[in-house]
């Protein structure tokens, strides 16, 4: 039974989005999402997230804040990776920008 569950988990995971900065499209009040520089690193909501995995289309990771008392913990990213490489969160589309910097307005 454990082997079956492990096989299902592996089959449901997939590649993460391409490394880079993803900006919200028309989502005022949302900051960018960073993928990389490590192979499973995500930067979101001011947190560094490691060991990110795509499970059934949703990203899951262990995240840390800037607090010295934070030992990290599971953070439900609720971040969907779309088939074209874009991401969606809370109904807002995030698109990879060609050159990191500032996200374009609106």
From TrEMBL:
Keywords: Signal. Residues 1-18 form the signal peptide. This is Secreted protein. The lineage of its organism: Bacteria, Pseudomonadati, Pseudomonadota, Alphaproteobacteria, Hyphomicrobiales.
